[in-house]
Amino acid sequence: MTEKHLFQDSRLEEDSILQSDFDELLELQNSILGVAISEDNCSELLRQLCIMAEKLAPDSVASIMLYSKAEGKLYVHAAPSIPQEAIDALNGLQVGIGSCGNAVYHDEAMYVSNTLKDNRWCASRAYAETFNVSACWSVPFHNELSEIIGTFALSSFEVREATQFQRKLLDTCASIAVILLQKEKYLQQKILWEKETLRSEKLKSIGVLAGGIAHDFNNLMGVVIGNLEMTNRVMEPNSKASAYIASAAKASQHASELTQQLLTFSKGGDPIKKLANLTEVVRESAEFVLHGSGVSLSFNYRCEDGDAFIADIDNGQIGQVVQNIIINARQAMNDDGAIKVVFSHILEIPDDVISNKRAHRYCVIEIQDTGPGIPADIIDKVFDPYFTTKPTGNGLGMALSFSIIKKHGGYLRASVQENEGTCFTIYLPASDAKHIEQPDSLVDNFCGDKAKGRVMVMDDQEMLHEIAEAMLEELGYDTVHADNGTEAVAMYGENIVSDDPIDIIIMDLTIPGGMGGEEAVQKILSIDKSAKVIVCSGYSNDSVMAKFADYGFKGALSKPYNINELGNMLNRVLSS
Question: Where are the transmembrane segments (predicted)?
């Protein structure tokens, strides 16, 4: 690095700036900024700025370099008159080297009149000789936070001092460049925001449709699973028919699990978060998908020693995102190739990724494959609903993944270089927690013994309450039925003073056009503070299901459920 006092030159010209010179600078400023009001192509305006500066400083070429603080390097952003070979050699210029590098290092204008003799250019002599750069003058410019973001420079083909006019020209061009770059940044953020808004609207629209369909489908699968299970209980053990029924029940359960992915689009799909170690969630999900394949899997941890990779997440949903990405990568590589997962922390998401940043620190998960990559012309569409490049794809996997990460306050992006694979990067707000409290284990003790008691089932779907009552009777309970919360409250109040009171209630959370479980439980508790009520819903991710005790419930049962899950829940609540 060159010390500043070594290159100060007291012999600099002190010629005055003529009125005509001021007029030229004013004309330059008005020409560029006047067009900038209506012109959105800021890159072209920056090129024009360089060209106009060159006209006012004959026998020189202008360049704009942007500073990467993270790398400590400068990169050419605009240089219309400089050959590409010279630009390639200039890119990645280290701070403290040459006129531009020293301008950034010292945060001060640098005027080098002879590059072959000046110490500031000792590390760039070869560049100066190769491209005939005899003199180079550079001034730094700053953003609204007074941070250096780049330099504006004039390079001359002959040894000479910068005149007062040329220095003023550099200052003027640097100021104009800042304005144009700020507009360019604004336009990029505006485009990004518009894309995010459009994508959110698409997701919202499909979410309304998907939520309704998935909820109804989930209810139907509950009836199918329940009837298959009840049928299997009366079949001869180990019979061929029993095996068929068990297989059908397993497939039905899998179909029900798939509906939870659709419910992620609806309000019932909001993540139910808890502290989790992201490395464990990602590793388990990735290894599950790749089990038995020919794809190699590796993990790279770029976190500081002792730095926990903990976030407040919905384990199931984040696992689903990872599985969707890994499945796509596995298919793209035809069950061959390699996948690398990199874990790291960053303090701020880059502006070109997301414009609305809320967290102070992010966990970053990069999933890189060695597949053929995604063509650049469709990379922006990979998260759009129904967009797919696979003949058998439905185009929902990545749209779901994008929705999940967004609901976690994070962001999901895809980047690719054709023929070099695809990289999906997940940004999630990091937790400040250093470790996770492990909950006490809970063991279900339901053993199938006949129970005693009276259970009310509140559900507006006839097939659902019929199969629920059949299961309850198989378990040994007496049952009564209510279609909605109003009926349930009235029935409970009537029976509380009878010889055969209701011991426990199973309430559907949502009753279209009627009182649902959330409101009904409060009315029942106002009648009997000791009432035992279980909330039941196909929206397993609803906040009421996750925090049922806060709403007055004693337990939560996700649809569809089997007879063992039902028996275990009743056993725990009644014995509590």
Answer: none
